[in-house]
Specification:
With 513 residues, the chain is an alpha/beta fold. 31% of the residues lie in helices and 24% in strands. A hairpin with a 2-residue loop joins strand 21 and strand 22. The two termini are 45 Å apart.
Length: 513
């Protein structure tokens, strides 16, 4: 294959922080090249360099054999290099059409040709059809998965030769992922070069031809994806031999019921949910996107007002999120950027936000020295890669941001944890750290509820599991009674005659720890 893009010895430093320290990369026309590495390894910085958003301190790049040094994202797009961001960069007040064609508008005599623009947007949307998406619909009215598809369609509008995809499936599931993979294969067959970032190795194996691993800002391994093992890839990413991802648990008797939920209803998505969550257990909830999983957790934390039902024998309508915090309930949002963290604020401010009294002196005055000490404690405990407690959260990698969000619940000393997609967009090493924290909290007597789209996570962590389907929560069963097949059967409302135990022999789903 012909090399489309070559990167040699790229380096970038931010003050004392070395983001890139000699990266080499070669992308061929018509291939899907996976870029792997832990959060903080330099993947996003490298994508910024390639997309013209970051200027490298040293190194050189060539595009189709010619020197390539874009001075802006617009310049990169003009040269045929486009980045699809993991953190969506859409304009929510504009329509789908306006977002898709932003910067690539069709004009006539200096005016935007709206008929031509609508036709072009419709053509692009047809590449990844979604029932919510219409050219004239406002992006603010779309769900997160639909917005992710709009972001992808916008990248296609520039007729790129090199497409940079940073976690493009982070908000997608099932059919949307399959349609995206089919689109990627079509684009590659047309000669487009695609750099694909993902933390899911099974996903990488399904779509990528070759791979490059970054660690500590350097490229440490490259080759054909079929010529290596997952253990070898993980070892390259973390710099040590691959070990069991999920911590070993000594399962003892669980405690009393911490959360008793009966008949919880929150239209339009949540139609009925009843379950008991006990202290010392990890209770998993699976289900397809849009099934009502997130709405259930938001209703439990009183972020959405339920229409009916009770929590601990009290009408669910009567509570507020502030009251839930006082009751010792902690909530981790699936939307880290939108509502999980205050990105412009410091690590210390975020960690201590839900229980500032622990960092206060008399008369409720915040003691900044005490706050910094508390923050340093959690930075050490959670292995957060940061320069100081005063570093802005927006400057951290995605995995370290997620650790800050989890650290806020630990500082809060919550004994009931509601975790919605706790490892979304998190690398292998950081994911293992998050799993350690979850298991430790359960061992300390906390009641932990985990909502996840990632079945290996649920099978590796949970004591019991229930499945959401069309807004209704199934009966909870011990994890040993579930297989991936039966989870899917319940999630799609299928036949439960699939209830059997062969499903774990695939090796993708860990046996009971």
């Amino acid at each position: 294959m012909i090399e489309t893009l070559r990167v040699h010895d790229i380096a970038k430093r931010y003050g004392a922080t070395v983001a890139l320290d000699g990266v080499d990369l070669a992308i061929r026309a018509g291939e899907v090249h996976a870029l792997l590495g832990e959060n903080g390894a330099g993947k996003s910085t490298l994508m910024g360099v390639l997309a013209g958003a970051v200027n490298a301190d040293r190194g050189e790049m060539t595009l189709d054999g010619e020197r390539y040094a874009p001075h802006s994202p617009h310049d990169a797009r003009q040269r045929g290099v486009t980045l699809i961001h993991q953190e969506l960069s859409l304009c929510p007040h504009l329509s789908v059409m306006e977002n898709v064609l932003l910067g690539s508008e069709t004009s006539r005599w200096g005016w935007i040709d709206r008929d031509a623009a609508r036709a072009r947007a419709t053509e692009l949307i047809a590449e990844l059809p979604h029932p919510e998406i219409h050219p004239l619909k406002r992006v603010a009215d779309l769900s997160l998965p639909a917005r992710q598809i709009v972001e992808i369609c916008r990248a296609l509008a520039s007729d790129s030769r090199v497409l940079l995809m940073d976690e493009p499936t982070s908000s997608l599931q099932g059919g949307d992922v399959e349609r995206l993979f089919a689109l990627i294969r079509r684009l590659a067959s047309r000669g487009m070069a695609i750099i694909y970032i993902s933390h899911f190795l099974e996903e990488v194996r399904q779509i990528a031809d070759r791979y490059t691993v970054l660690r500590d800002g350097m490229s440490v391994a490259t080759g054909d994806i079929n010529d290596t093992t997952n253990e070898s890839l993980i070892s390259s990413m973390v710099g040590r031999p691959a070990s069991v991802l999920f911590p070993v648990r000594s399962r003892g008797a669980v405690g009393d019921v911490a959360l008793s939920v009966r008949g919880l209803v929150s239209p339009p998505r949540l139609r009925q949910a009843s379950f008991d969550l006990r202290r010392g257990e990890i209770f998993g909830i699976a289900g397809l996107l849009g099934s009502g999983r997130t709405e259930l957790v938001r209703a439990l934390f009183a972020l959405d007002e339920p229409e009916a039902g009770s929590i601990n024998d009290v009408p669910a309508k009567s509570s507020s999120a502030a009251e839930r915090v006082r009751q010792g309930v902690g909530y981790l949002s699936e939307d880290r950027k939108g509502e999980g963290l205050a990105l412009p604020m410091t690590i210390a401010d975020n960690l201590c936000a839900t229980r500032p009294a622990l960092s206060a002196r008399g008369l409720g005055i915040l003691d900044l020295t005490k706050q910094a000490e508390r923050a340093r404690h959690w930075i050490r405990e959670l292995r957060i890669r940061a320069t100081s407690p005063n570093q802005r959260v927006r400057a951290l990698s995605g995995g370290n941001q997620q650790k800050v969000a989890i650290g806020r619940l630990l500082h809060q000393e919550a004994d009931v944890l509601l975790l919605d997609e706790p490892t979304r967009g998190v690398d292998v090493g950081s994911r293992s750290d998050v799993y350690d924290v979850i298991v430790q909290r359960a061992a300390a007597g906390c009641a932990v509820l985990v909502v996840s789209s990632y079945l290996p996570e649920l099978f590796g962590l949970c004591d019991r599991l229930a499945v959401m389907c069309r807004g209704e929560l199934s009966e909870a069963r011990p994890i040993s009674e579930w297989t991936p097949e039966t989870v899917l059967a319940v999630a799609i409302g299928g036949d439960l005659s699939l209830w059997k135990t062969e499903g774990r022999e695939s090796g993708l789903y860990p046996s009971d720890p």
